[in-house]
Give the backbone structure.
Amino acid sequence: MTRIGTVAVIGLGYIGLPTAAILATNGLDVIGVDVSRRTVDAVNEGRVPFVEPDLGIHVAGAVSQGRLKATTETPSADVFIVAVPTPFLEDKSADLGYIEAAARGIAPVLQGGELVILESTSPPGATRHLGDYIIALRPDLSLDGAGGKPAVLFAHCPERVLPGKVMIELVTNDRIVGGLTPQAAELAKELYSVFCQGEILLTDDVTAEMAKLVENSYRDVNIAFANELSVVSEKLGINVWELIRLANHHPRVNILQPGPGVGGHCIAVDPWFIVAAAPEETRLIRAARNVNDDKPSWVLQKVRDAHAELDGEGEIAILGLAFKANIDDLRESPSVDIARSIAQVLPSVQINVAEPHIERMPPTLEDMKNVSLVSVDDAVSKSSVVVVLVDHDAVKALSPQALMGKVVVDTKGVFSAS
Ligand code: SAJ
């Protein structure tokens, strides 16, 4: 049993809403806060404004039980969970603007004794910054009870769930909790124990912040290795998918898969926070980022070559815009950039884009006159060059006959893996 009664979750996005819903279905009273009226209305009607398997049923259940409500104003609560975006700025350092905006909402409602948890992916020092920022707004409170002022507890508990598997991983993943004080970490552990069946590991705030960044950088560096191998293999005239499959038979080798680049709001972003914190010491992390960021232009060149092979004749199919398979999330997706670049460099060629998870073209492609959104089957049948950017199930379901006679640029190894 927990002493925590009410939890306010600030930011009802891909992480905040699932967290709010799972806390509510486990018996806590949860108030979700979002700046978007549309999101707030959707949640209050028990609806989810984005695609995530099993989330809908949790939100609908929590709302109908009266445990989950949404609002645009931050209410008072025992615990505040901040789950807002941390994009990067021009210089690749983290933009803490959304965290500060959340802090300005929380500060006036504090009484002392509350716990504020930062879940947003954050550069080292962000949790301390959040604490200092709130105490600067509320000098009658403190971080540690000094001067007899009531303390507010602060902890960082990075989310590490995989989009597409959020409702499972929220429950099964181990969690890292870093407190500004040990007491803060203990109380945060109590909260997560309500639904988390994994281990809850306690540490300090900066180590917790770095743990999250390091996990995603580890992945980025390894994907960069696979992407570099795909470029090398092309030069050597060998099949990279076969190469990786064979090498992975070694008991201590596990190479990841190449692709059109690295997308999403995490792996392509978080390594930069480490680079910004230690620019001189991060040669490998920076190089990996650059390798992955360069992959879309390599793909663009391959598409141009393929189209030139056909004497510039025929339409081009682009299969997939999402940043990975079977989701609708286009954020930081290299596929969107590739589609736009192809449409720009080949303005007289009709580009048939198929993305089965969206109904409207994203704003970056909307204004392109030679681009239309069609079904996977239509895109393929109309086109002579087929560019596979995402290994959606709907793309994998294409029959080899449908591709017969077409030039295929397969960045995911869906049709060229053997
Ligand atoms: N990708 C490859 N090759 C691979 C694996 C992935 O090119 O072998 C690409 C994907 O196509 C995609 C990108 O990398 O464009 C990232 O996809 P992902 O599935 O590896 O990861 P994300 O961004 O969906 O989620 C990651 C996860 N982090 C790790 O696996 C270490 C997740 O656990 C985190 O919670 C999430 O980032 C986050 O929010 O930070």
Remarks:
- The chain has two domains: 6-198, 215-410.
